[in-house]
Design a protein that fits this description.
- The complex is a heterodimer of chains A (251) and B (268).
- By secondary structure, chain A is of the alpha/beta class.
- In chain A, 38% of the residues lie in helices and 28% in strands.
- Chain A has one domain: P-loop containing nucleotide triphosphate hydrolases (Rossmann fold, 3-Layer(aba) Sandwich).
- Chain A is built from 9 helices and 12 strands.
- The relative contact order of chain A is 0.18.
- In chain B, the strands form 2 sheets. In chain B, strands 2-1-3-5-7-9-11-13-15 form a 9-stranded mixed β-sheet, with no helix packed on it.
- The two termini of chain B are 20 Å apart.
- Chain B is built from 4 helices and 16 strands.
- In chain B, 48% of the residues are buried.
- In chain B, helix 1 runs antiparallel to helix 4.
- The chains are: A alpha/beta (251), B alpha/beta (268).
- The interface between A and B is medium-sized, with 30 and 22 residues.
């Protein structure tokens, strides 16, 4: 589904990604961990198509297409979803209106008719239940005045609405209390199918108690320096990153 | 077209240019030029929409009366609206500007307990040039005023807002809020000049003015969900100006105002 080869990216004249290799297949869950400043969020942003970053080298293939040729909205319409670490507040734009446009754009790109008002309401109701999102929130402005937990639930709600092939969740667990974490993580798990894939960027092992990864990657200084299975996350939780980083320095 | 619909909407309550509302109803043809009087205790609605050559409009809102004004500027025009508000009377105004124009509103709160509110928006595109002035004179004590004007300028347009809140020496316990918020795009400019002139000591006056660009994080967020750049921009601007429409002083005019703005926003 996703094949990243030797990806380099810069912001300004600072190189942040220094040769990422990553392959994600349908049905898989990948976790990306690593110390602060290692490039995790940059990787998510670059894959999503944030124009703040410049790709200087490498290839990214998504569903057989050259992802780097597409702009951010085209990537979204191809089925790539980014759950934002800091969801943006958009005053005056209601969630319901925003999502209606988004859903219909996605449908249009797949050659489908726009949803009728009734179909749309039904979809919203069904999907907001997945993350126990208060239905009142959908009539409010996007993320405006939402609590930290509501903002993150709202990200997963949007993911449910858009039904992406690949979801990249950038620190969806940050700032969540234990209940909100469980709800968000359970939501993600319920959306998992053999046809889609999830990349979870996280600092903490606790999220991975709910979203069980097939692979755990450690990102350090712009490169994936180690890949293991779910037991790697547990080891990192206990022992930190030092043993890996030390290994890496010796290389 | 849109204006026609607004006229139909409120035709029963509308006077075209000048008149006097008493307990016996509106009478026209009295007074000179464009003078409007809302007599004591009456409630009136005034729509100003076909305004190409309006010029000066003088309005008196007598004791305890309420006047709601919807001012739609969709054609090149210059106008001066002067409103004098008497004891415990109020004037509420919604002003929507979508064309090159020069609009000046001067509200004078003449007696205690008078109130003035204005919620306005101007949206300029292409090479529109527009200026909006809202001056509020607090002449008497215990009066309230609230002015909020939002501006959007795109293309090569140029907009300006100028707002003076004057508080006379006797106007104690004045409560006044003034805000000017603006978004510019491309080569467009907006100047904002909020001014306070206060000669009384027991007053509550606040004012704020901003001129900024669109929120690029919000645009990015919307595009990540599949919206095109143009749709994301339009949605954001609609969200910015929407509250003016939602709080229109004439109930039922929201939809037509939204259409009028949407038509203009398509030109961004």
């Amino acid at each position: 589904m996703l094949k990243v080869e030797n990806l380099h990216a810069t912001v300004g004249d600072k190189e942040i990604l220094k040769g990422i290799n990553l392959t994600v297949k349908a049905g898989e869950v990948h976790a990306i961990m690593g110390p602060n400043g290692s490039g995790k969020s940059t990787l998510a942003s670059v894959l999503a198509g944030n124009e703040k970053f410049t790709v200087t080298e490498g290839k990214v293939e998504f569903e057989g297409e050259n992802l780097l040729d597409l702009n951010i909205e085209e990537r979204s319409r191809k089925g790539l979803f980014l759950g934002f670490q800091y969801p943006v507040e958009i005053p005056g734009v209601t969630m319901a209106n925003f999502m209606k446009l988004a859903v219909n754009e996605q449908r249009k790109s797949r050659g489908l008719e726009p949803l009728t008002a009734g179909e749309y309401l039904k979809l919203m109701k069904e999907k907001s239940a997945i993350v126990e999102l208060d239905s009142k929130l959908t009539s409010r402005a996007v993320n405006e005045g939402f609590s930290g937990g509501e903002k993150k639930k709202n990200e997963i709600f949007q993911m449910a609405m858009l039904n992406p092939k690949l979801a990249i969740l950038d620190e969806t667990d940050s700032g969540l209390d234990i209940d909100a974490l469980r709800i968000v993580a359970t939501g993600v798990t319920r959306l998992k199918t053999p046809e889609n894939a999830t990349v979870v960027i996280t600092h903490y092992q606790r999220l991975l108690d709910y979203i069980v990864p097939d692979y755990v990657h450690v990102l350090y200084k712009g490169r994936i320096i180690y890949t293991g299975d779910k037991t790697l996350a547990l080891k990192l939780e206990k022992e930190g990153y030092d043993w890996l980083i030390n290994d890496y320095k010796e290389e | 077209m849109v204006v026609k619909r607004i006229e139909e909407l409120i035709s029963a309550k509308t006077i075209p240019a000048s008149g006097r509302l008493t307990s016996g109803g509106w009478t026209f043809g009295e007074g000179s030029g464009y003078d409007v009087v809302v007599e004591s205790g009456q409630e009136a609605v005034l729509l100003i929409a076909d305004n190409a050559n309006l010029g000066d409009l003088n309005i008196d809102v007598a004791r305890g009366a309420t006047l709601r004004i919807l001012n739609i500027i969709h054609d090149h025009s210059a106008m001066n609206i002067a409103v004098a508000v008497a004891e415990d009377a109020q004037c509420m105004m919604t002003q929507v500007v979508v064309s090159a124009s020069d609009t000046r509103v001067v509200a004078s709160l003449m007696e205690r307990g008078a109130r003035f509110e204005l919620g306005g928006v101007f949206v300029l595109t292409d090479d529109d040039q527009a200026s909006v002035t809202v001056d509020v004179n607090h002449i008497a004590s215990d009066c309230q005023s609230h002015t909020s004007v939002k501006g959007v300028a795109a293309g090569k347009s140029h907009g300006s807002f100028s707002g003076l809140v004057y508080v006379a020496p006797d106007a104690q316990r004045t409560d006044s809020v003034q805000s000017s918020r603006n978004i510019t795009m491309g080569e467009a400019h907006i100047e904002t000049l909020p001014q306070l002139e206060i000669y009384a000591d027991d007053v509550k006056c606040s004012h704020g003015a901003t001129v900024g660009q669109m929120d690029s994080d919000a645009i990015l967020y919307m595009r990540q969900r599949g919206l095109s750049l143009a749709d994301a921009k339009r949605l954001q601007i609609e969200g910015f100006v929407d509250d003016v429409v939602l709080h229109s002083v004439i109930a039922g005019s929201e939809e037509v105002l939204a259409e009028l703005l949407a038509e203009k926003l398509n030109r961004l």
